[in-house]
Amino acid sequence: MAAVQNKKTTNFKFKWVEWIYVNLPFLCFIGLLAVLYISNAHAAEHNLRRIETLKKDVKDAEWKYMKIKKEIMYGSTQSQIERDVQASGLRPGKKLPKRIKVDKN
Fold first, then answer.
1. Is 37 inside a domain boundary?
2. In this structure, is residue 68 part of a structural domain?
3. Of 9, 26, 31, 81, which sees the most CB atoms within 10 A?
4. Is 94 part of any domain?
5. DSSP calls for 53-105
6. How far is CA 5 from the centre of its chain?
7. Is position 60 within any domain?
8. If you average pLDDT over every residue of the chain, what do you get?
9. What is the pLDDT of residue 3?
């Protein structure tokens, strides 16, 4: 009886090994798909982190642009220009500018 049980377990072990060898290409294919899935997930996470960083950079650039634009707009008002050139001795004109007309003949 012990010989029959031993033969059954050996036969069972050979069936496992045989099954693995028969399905080895499929198992390798499944392993390759698992590796590709994991690498794709890592690449997607990397791209999401990069997008968030670029969004922050764009937001900072927009704030800098708006700050510079505000300074330029404020600095180009007539009162600010008069204040800035007052140190060099320039003053605003009292008379209106003269208009020159040219005949087209």
1. yes
2. yes
3. 81
4. no
5. HHHHHHHHHHHHHHHHHHHHHHHTSHHHHHHHHGGGT----SSPPPP------
6. 65
7. yes
8. 87
9. 52
- Cβ-based neighbours of 74, under 8 Å, separated by 6 or more: 80
Residue 79 binned pLDDT confidence (cut-offs 50, 70, 90): confident
Residues 83 and 92 sit within 8 Å (Cβ to Cβ): no
* Cβ partners under 8 Å of residue 81, min gap 6: 75
Give the structural domain span for 35.
Answer: 7-78
Domains: count for the chain: 1
The alpha carbon of residue 27 and the mean position of all alpha carbons in its chain are separated, in whole angstroms, by: 37
Pairwise CA distance, residues 78 & 90, whole Å: 13
